TrEMBL record:
It comes from Mycolicibacterium sarraceniae. This is Putative tartrate transporter. One of its GO terms (molecular function) is transmembrane transporter activity. One of its GO terms (cellular component) is plasma membrane. Keywords: Membrane, Transmembrane, Transmembrane helix, Transport. It comes from the Bacteria. It is a multi-pass membrane protein. InterPro entries: MFS, MFS_dom, MFS_trans_sf. Coiled coil: none annotated. Component of the tartrate utilization system and may allow entry of tartrate and tartrate dehydrogenase. The keyword tRNA processing does not apply. It is found in: Cell membrane. Gene3D superfamilies: MFS general substrate transporter like domains (1.20.1250.20).
């Protein structure tokens, strides 16, 4: 990409630095809270299961029913973001999910918990694909994988920092205000979403043309570069929304992302219980805070690996193998962990699996943007994320059911590894298979 030098720094560098500082940290904070709110059930598994009398399969259903609501509303929500603007719509998403997240802390029984988890999915629908779409409106193609990686670092950071924090809140909040520890934690991590949603309304800018915090020359440079890129894509792939939503390539990418989400949420919901199981397997006694700290290790490594791998992808300009390789390695690593005989040895393949699944995500989201623009991009990205996130429903429910049926966690973890491997194969096959449905009529 050509750069125009002004003084000591190029206009390109100066502009993008301002955009990164203005946009990315806030989106990371939003996703940090979002990731913690959707996965904090796994941290409180033992306490909430005892309090509400949940079996393993009921807990899996409570974990996964979130994604049913999420999937049903995902595409309409992303189209609404494109129609009404990111500032308004992301603010609405954050405030509504924060209210439901707080309400979960007051759930009196399993049925109420299931309903509220479903509503949490409805409230959160559109946030992640909305942010991915929003980033395409602010960053040229050569920078997008890195920007997605920076934004996505919020999820392993949330797991690394938020998990022990939430575990501490469960421990410290027991009995405060007449609440059980898990209730105090749910309320405590739900409130920041409401606060961030209110800030979002006043802070975010919908598009570069309205960015008065940029200098006129910076604003014009960014508008021109993004417009040129969109014209280039539209000239090759002039795809209407309906065709995008029925494209075999979009549905194949949805299948790939199903495997990514399956691995991601299997780790999120069951890694704390795997670490807790060290007591039974290896006679290692751990407090809930120690479980949270040990659980943080794979996610810390995943955050580092994800950023470095995304930089490598941007330098090479290649994304398919940057999805397939980490997904394949992660899929192979998960079953290996089941047959090792010390806590340290178990955590090595678990860490590799976490690094694999997180490293694949930024490069994955570069794929649909290569042939979709405008409303087709909003709808296509929303569809991929919604169908793919069925893996978020299937992973905790299937893993919990398999664990309950077999009496151990081996079958569930084998399923995770196999599905991740299948996703790696599909994305490679997809690369070699042209999709005529995304080509314009000649």
């Amino acid at each position: 990409m050509a750069s125009v030098s002004i003084g000591e720094k190029s206009l390109e560098t100066r502009t993008l630095r301002k955009v990164i500082i203005r946009v990315v940290p806030f989106l990371m904070a939003l996703y940090f809270v979002n990731y913690l709110d959707r996965t904090n059930l796994g941290i409180a598994k033992a306490d909430i299961s005892e309090h509400l009398q949940l079996t393993a399969s009921m807990f899996g259903l409570a974990s996964g029913v979130f994604f049913i609501g999420y999937v049903l509303v995902e595409v309409p929500s992303n189209l609404a973001l494109e129609r009404f603007g990111a500032r308004r719509w992301l603010a609405r998403i954050a405030v509504s999910w924060g209210i439901v997240a707080v309400a979960i802390g007051f759930a009196p029984n399993a049925a109420t918990l299931l309903v509220l988890r479903f509503l949490l999915g409805v409230a959160e629908a559109g946030l992640f694909p909305g942010v991915i779409f929003y980033l395409t409106r602010w960053f040229p193609g050569a920078y997008r994988v890195r920007m997605v990686a920076l934004f996505m670092m919020a999820s392993p950071i949330a797991a690394a920092i938020g998990t022990p924090l939430a575990a501490w809140m469960i421990q410290a909040g027991e009995g405060l205000f007449g609440l059980a520890g898990w209730q105090f934690m749910m309320i405590g991590v739900g409130l920041p979403a409401i606060i961030l949603g209110i800030i979002c309304w006043f802070y975010l800018t919908d598009r570069p043309a309205d960015a008065h915090w940029l200098q006129p020359d910076e604003r014009q440079w960014l508008v021109d570069v993004l417009a040129d890129e969109e014209r280039d894509v539209a000239g090759v792939f002039d795809v209407p929304l309906r065709r995008a939503l029925t494209s075999p390539r979009i549905w194949a990418l949805s299948l790939v992302y199903f495997g990514v989400a399956y691995g991601l949420y299997a780790l999120a919901f069951f890694l704390p219980s795997i670490v807790s199981g060290f007591k039974q397997m290896f006679n290692v006694h751990l407090s809930i805070v120690q479980v949270g700290l040990i659980t943080a290790v794979p996610y810390t490594l995943a955050a580092i690996a994800m950023y470095l791998w995304s930089r490598h992808a941007d330098r090479k300009g290649e994304h398919v193998w940057h999805v397939a390789i980490p997904m394949g390695l992660g899929g192979l690593a998960i079953p290996i962990a089941l047959y090792l005989h010390s806590p340290l040895l178990v955590m090595i393949p678990v860490s590799i699996a976490a690094m694999g699944v997180f490293s694949a995500i930024p490069s994955f989201w570069a794929l649909p943007a290569q042939f979709l623009t405008g409303a087709a991009a909003a709808g296509g990205i929303g569809l991929i994320n919604s169908i793919g996130n069925l893996g978020g429903f299937a992973a905790p429910y299937a893993t919990g059911a398999l664990n309950q049926f077999t009496g151990n966690d081996k079958a569930g973890m084998w399923a995770v590894g196999i599905i991740m491997l299948v996703s790696a194969v599909v994305v490679v096959v997809l690369r070699a298979t042209p999709d005529r449905s995304t080509q314009p009529d000649r």
